[in-house]
Amino acid sequence: MKKIKLLLIFTTIFLSTDLLAQIYKYKDENGSWVFSDKKPTHTSKIEKIKTPSSHHRKVKPKVYISSENDSFNLIAKNPYFAPIQIKLTLHEHGITFHKTVPARSKSVVLKNVDPNAKYRYWWVLGDPEASAEIVAYQAPVASKQEFKITQSFNGRFSHSHQPNQYAIDIAMPIGTYIGAARAGTVILVKDDYHMGGKNRYFLDKANYIQVLHEDGTYAGYYHILMGSALVKPGDRVNPGDPLAMSGSSGYSTGPHLHFALFKNKGFARESIPFLLHNGDGKTFSPKSGIYISNQTYKK
Question: Against a cut of 0.90, is the pTM above it?
Answer without folding.
Answer: no
